[in-house]
## 1
Amino acid sequence: MSKQYFSLEPARFKLDGGAMFGIIPKPLWSKVHPADEMNRIELALRLIVIKSGSKNILIDTGIGDYHGEKFDQRFAVVGGASPLEKALAEIQLRPEDITDLVISHLHFDHVGGIGKMVDGKMEPVLKNAIVHLHQKHYEYSHHPTERDSGSFHFDDFNPVLEWYKEQHQIHFLEGIEGEILPGLKFMCSMGHTPYLLHPYDDKFIYMADLIPTSNHVSIPWVMGYDISPGVTTKDKFHFLSFINDKKLAMIFEHDPVYFGSTVKKNEKGEFVCAQKLPYEPRGAYPIFLS
């Protein structure tokens, strides 16, 4: 069955550059990802849509539009009202056309677009979708550590997930790897957050926050947000080896310049980007992965 792949950017935002690059000194990371006067760097909120037969599969949802002016200013959110709906419209899809939603993890910038505020209550945006979510990560989101609890906007996403459960439209995934849907598998990493889900097929793998940008491919370049940075380095080596062996394209969820890249080893035996795939700032566009 033929597939069509689309990259969507419902919004962009900014996070602290030091937090995004962890122990890497600013004189190094700022050369490749310059910061603003508040030390924040611009980041994409990149989603993937796969059209395959009767299926319209969406991976992640972006940040949403209901957080308020103070939040939007703090994180320099640029997206406007109904950002997910507008992004889908660019590829001639309506929210009700999405048959499957794959959630990498439940941090606010990945699951925020799952709901919208209607009369003071959160309602689902994608009412016909089956939600694919890792069971263990869902459980962790109910009891995160104090270090990462601010990343889980539980009161926003949980009412929507409860609605999906009541409608029997949630598919909980288990294990470190497995199948989401026919032709779409997953692997989990554990360093950024427990059971971070990475969907993949024979062409691409969605890196989410394991390798959020092309500047995070180098194994020591790990975010300060990660719960277990040492585990992340092991995860990255395992994933990059897999990607290299399978000749997959990595999709970077947060890179504002490149939506993806293939990988290779340099003369030192280190993993580096091979063919970078540039983002074209004209809205949605098909991904042709050879």
## 2
Amino acid sequence: MRAPGIGPVRFARLIEHFGSAAAAFAASRAELDTLELPNPALNYLAAPDWRPVEQDLAWLAQSGNHHLLSFDDPRYPLLLRHIAYPPPLLFVSGDPDCLRAPQLAIVGSRNPTPLGRETAHLFAAHLAGAGMVVTSGLAFGIDAAAHQGALSSGGLTIAVMGTGLDRVYPAKHRELAHAIVERGALVSELPAGTVVTAENFPRRNRLISGLALGVLVVEAAIRSGSLITARLANEQGREVFAIPGSIHNPMAKGCHALIRQGAKLVETAADILEELGSLAAAGSAVSAPTAVAPSAVDALDNDYRQLLAAIGSESAGIDDLVDRCGLTVEAVSSMLLIMELEGYVAAVPGGLYCRIKL
């Protein structure tokens, strides 16, 4: 976001309160004060600087491969709508349609063993060859091997960046980034001109897991960004997979810890395809939310029908639905994801969900 003091969390609060960005800009200072915004945000809303917006539009006009997806754009990825505070805007270089395809994130050490690198490459090649998009972060090591494996099989791959898309980090992956643009997409929530800063990479990790049906950790130390991505995947209701290794390999300790915590141990790519098969099929069948017939609603089990009824005729947030249904946050989030994939509900700005009208 270009607005000082306004990130995804405050943006969602503003949209939930005012209904639109235009209404937030038109609000009085007194009304904005009720939201307890920091002074930089208040000052910006009172006198916005449109020059950075013009820079974003200039980047967009540079190439037919450059795209800017707002939250209400039909190309905005469905799964990403379901994370806590999804990015209001996504900058995309490449094919934005692949963001809505079934994805598996593959992450791991920046300094893997040769076997770990080969394993990531082979898993990615198999999964991409089977029709899944492989998502990672363009970092050295496992990330790069995953992207290269997907490309080697003629599949699609997505790199989620921790910088603006006008730069490639690490710079040695410039050629790989160009190849990904041709067979997938580079994605960032950060505008062109955003430089490398340490805090942007953990923030980037929530998008890697949020775009995907599941996350596969190939090799990881006990303290690593890959375990942060796995934790975020758990919080987002995604599947977490881990490949075991030798007890003497320090790069296997993170995977073993994940398995002890409930991650699914996998030995082959087929294990992942078997686990994600039904979700991947549902995701690939959806290009945009569509209305469902009343008989399809009748086919839902009791919990799903109860949740659908709780949404009612107006939009509702997850916390409201938890209170109305007596289900856990995790259960409601997972059920909403399935119902959106199958066309029963649609996500709307502000972290809300509405029933799709017939």
## 3
Amino acid sequence: MLRRRVSIWKLIVFGLLGLSLVVIYLQGQVSVVQEEEYLLGTYFRIKAQGRARERVAAALQAAWREARRLSDELSRTGPGPLGELNRRGAEESVKLTPDLIALLEAAQQFRALSHGAFDPTMGKIVNLWGFTQDWDRAGVGRVPTSEELQPFLAERDFSIDALTQTGRLSGPHVEIDLGGIAKGYIVDRVINVLRAYELDNALVDAGGNIRVFNDRPRRVLWWEDRRPFRIAVQHPRDEQKIIGVLEIWRDQALATSGDYQRCFFADDLKNIFPCRYADEPDKTRYHHLMDPKTGAPARGLISVTILASTAMEADALSTAVFVLGEQQGLALIESLPNVEGILVTADGRIIVSSGLKNMNFPTELK
């Protein structure tokens, strides 16, 4: 009788164990899809996870439609409204779309917040250095002379008429370049599209402008298996290394601006050489992150990573902090709620904001 009871209990235990494994297996059946496309001079990547493959596929189709639409609208040289503003805006008012108006207004706010370090009117200066929108495909830089730069250093501005939904440039030396904020704006809009499909989680990456959400953790029987997204922070002088890893939970964004992303080297004779991560002692590195006051690449920092609530905020602040430099840039980060940063100086020091002190990042490049 005792042996029979033991056998029955074994059957019950193994039966429950088998049922548990079946439940775990079934709950692990999720669809993960990752796609990539070249837009606005960089690669956009979308990774999404959901319970039904058809829903995930439909979500990505809608997300790409939104990304392409906004890329066309926000191209500074294309046929969309921003391209038209740059071509005709110095002579007449140009009709704008609601998205472009929202982005231009946000750019004005970040310009004021950073005391001009973030400046969306730098398009023609950026062009003088050869940093076109298609730099990644055909980029060959040049070093303009001070005489060439001088006409473009005068006051640059633009205006928006909310009543007529039009915009105007202040003069012929102005071109709007939203490269430091547009990709973040698109990432945020794409995240909103994906969220409408009630996916488990998603990551959108536009050339280092990243936003994630993790709304629905996996349920394994009676507990939740919630895992963060782990984002590596690139070493700015060695493409094979990273500085450290940030764990991002729920809904957060991250953006990095560095002097290694779009750059070239030049010697004293202004001969141009391809850009590399490592510095070359006999050559000067020139990059696309311009100081609006000088019209030349900002110096002092070589990399800035920003954590923020939205990709647009992280995108704009990474540019602003890079231009502001170590002290003013860190002060700006510390003054803002829900914003953290990692700054790498030209002499190899790594500075983290107060909210990241417990992340154990190194204090210098290795």
## 4
Amino acid sequence: MIDLHTHTNISDGTDSPRELINKALAQGITTIGLTDHDTVGGWDEAISALRPGIDLVLGSEISAQTSDGISVHILGLLFDRHESELSQVLTNTRENRIGRMERIIGKLNAAGYDVTMDDVRAQLSEGATLGRPHLADALVAKKIVKSREEAFSELLHNNSAHYVSHYSPTPEVAIQHIKRAGGVAIIAHPFASLRGRTISVESFAPLVAAGLDGIEIEHRDHSTEDRQLCREIINTYELIETGSSDYHGTGKLNLLGESITTPENWEILASRATGGKVFRA
């Protein structure tokens, strides 16, 4: 089984990179993609945790935003982490998350919710990329809500009065940086409407022109109709179909390997990468 989209406690997952590798092995995953948000901070631990029987694909899920404020996530895989321009984009995005979090907390405080930045920091693992799931965990710890799911459905979703947008590159720029760093670029769950506004079919032409390689179709947040629309786009632009769990440990309901990529499609994707390699024990 090939699962190309997972998260650890280096961003908003709950497993360490080592725990992720061990769980993937136990679940029969043969190829696992580590794609923490806007960071490569978990790569070395994941490499050191490898054992025979599993291949490790290193990458990052890059937060992007269209000119009209629609959030888009681009999976970059097998890129050179030392490429300076992409590294700077990831750094800028992570640093902006701090000011954004402070503004969200300010809005929650104004609405009567007692939560602080220190409460949120208490939920982070060392070196982790800050995100709204950590705020959700702080709200759970303070018994304001019962779960991450409730926190997002009631207070932290993209249409909430407490939502604050953030710095991020456009999807086209994110893709261009991934390609310059020798990686492959896949748009993650593009029509997952429960997360907020989604891009249009027409938006794919400039993404393809920027170098988009594939679309993550098989994902629990895509309906049957969403998947069909994705396949029509793939046929139009000759892109590659992927499927992934978007696993976050106990942070989400998603299970390792619940959606997968075919070996044939993964072989095509991997053959396009020049910046990084697949790691094996």
